[in-house]
Structures are given as structure tokens and as C-alpha cells.
Design brief:
The chain is mainly α. The protein has one domain. It is 48% helix and 0% strand. The protein is built from 5 helices and no strands. Helix 2 packs across helix 3.
Length: 151
């Protein structure tokens, strides 16, 4: 039994145009909430409305996309170096490298503590480096950012 299906050219063109418009946003929408939730929890951003729920930690655009900022590039390198690490491990290992990804004078870990974007040189913590170093020490150092289980 042979079944024959035919579509009008306008339907096929319309469907193709719709898919072309929607497909770039599909991956962005499906991945973003999970990554934001992990970062918000691990970097303790729950009380910060500006930093919570944004992709600017790693991307150049607030809604994510293909363009990565310097911190995002460092994270991507860590993520892929041992065959796709898990996101919490990637966040921790990136801070462990002790980089100043955006070359603004603040190490990435201090920018996380100071609630600024480590991949944007125009975004700097309001506190001094010495104050942030003290806060890091009071938190228990880098170990405060180790992946942890949700309570």
C-alpha cells in the first residue's frame, strides 16, 4: 500500500519560514533556566535582582546566545577540557583558576563575591579588593564555591 501526501508550495514555504524564525530561540529557551538556576544557587545570587536570571555572567547579551564574554570563554574551556564537565563543577573549576577574565583588576572570584559580572570590564564591585579578599577568607575561601547539594 502506497500513501501519497502532497503539500501546496505556499504551505511548505510558510512552514519553513516559521521554523527558521523559531529555531534560533528554541535552544536558548530550553537551556537557560537550568544554567541560571545552578549559577544562582552556587554563586549565591538569590537576593540580587540584577544578577539573578541573567546570562551576562557568561554571555555578552542578557538573554544568552552565541556570543561569550571572557568569563564565559574561560568557563567553556573548563567545561570541555575533560569531556563535558557538569555545570556546577565547571563553575567551581573556573574560579579555582584564579583568573581576572575581563582584565579589570578584580579576580573573577572577587567579582562573584562583590556581585558584579566577571566577564565585563565595565562591571566592578563597589567594595575594595582588600574588603573582598577579607570576605572571601571569612567565607572559607574557594571551598565556599564547591558544588553543593540542594537542601
Amino acid at each position: 500500500m502506497k500513501i501519497s501526501v502532497s503539500f501546496k508550495p505556499t504551505f511548505v514555504l510558510g512552514l519553513g519560514a516559521l521554523l527558521a524564525l523559531v529555531s534560533p530561540f528554541a535552544a536558548r529557551v530550553s537551556a537557560r533556566p537550568a544554567y541560571n538556576a545552578i549559577m544562582t544557587y552556587q554563586y549565591d545570587l538569590r537576593d540580587d535582582k540584577e544578577l539573578r536570571g541573567t546570562c551576562l555572567y557568561c554571555h555578552t547579551e542578557a538573554d544568552g546566545g552565541d556570543l561569550w564574554n571572557p568569563f564565559g570563554e574561560a568557563m567553556r574551556e573548563v567545561f570541555f577540557e575533560e569531556g563535558n564537565r557538569r555545570v556546577p563543577e565547571t563553575l567551581y573549576e573556573t574560579l579555582k583558576r584564579d583568573l581576572d577574565s575581563d582584565k579589570d583588576g578584580y579576580r573573577d572570584i572577587l567579582e562573584v563575591i562583590g556581585k558584579s559580572f566577571p566577564g565585563n570590564p565595565k562591571s566592578k564591585p563597589e567594595q575594595s579588593i582588600a574588603a573582598l579578599e577579607q570576605k572571601l577568607e571569612d567565607m572559607g575561601g574557594l571551598e565556599a564555591f564547591k558544588p553543593r547539594v540542594a537542601r
